[in-house]
Design a protein that fits this description.
alpha+beta, 5-stranded antiparallel beta sheet, 3-stranded antiparallel beta sheet, 8 strands
Length: 123
């Protein structure tokens, strides 16, 4: 019985050693905030510094990893989207449409993960 218990503790310890830092799984973006869902269930955030119509970059906050990120906002050249945005603004909900953007996150292994909003992971 002692052998089984010792083997279980050893295997559990080894399994804990093999888990690395969490990987970014999905992103949500508002006009002034990036929210990144991580593989371990945590949420990381990257706030825009003031008015950033073209995008922003920095280090993710509110999470245990200091991953760098870059947000590049599409200038909104789609005419249908521009009309919808004007309609929502007139109805009092100017932020109803999330911006179209490309988000690049450099994870703990130095790998760039690229997301496009609102679709998701590109690579």
């Amino acid at each position: 019985m002692r052998f089984v218990l010792a083997a279980f503790i050893c295997l559990a310890s080894l399994a804990a050693c093999t888990t690395g830092p969490a990987a970014p799984r999905d992103v949500q973006i508002d006009r002034d905030l990036l929210t990144v869902g991580m593989s371990d269930g945590s949420l990381c955030r990257g706030a825009a510094p003031g008015d950033s119509p073209a995008g922003w970059s920095g280090t993710l906050q509110s999470c245990p990893w200091s991953y760098g990120y870059t947000v590049e906002i599409d200038p909104g050249t789609n005419p249908v989207r521009l009309i919808l945005q004007e309609v929502f603004t007139a109805l009092g909900a100017p932020d109803a449409l999330s911006p179209i953007a490309t988000v690049t996150i450099i994870d703990g292994m130095g790998r760039a993960r690229v997301f496009e909003t609102p679709d998701g992971l590109v690579d």
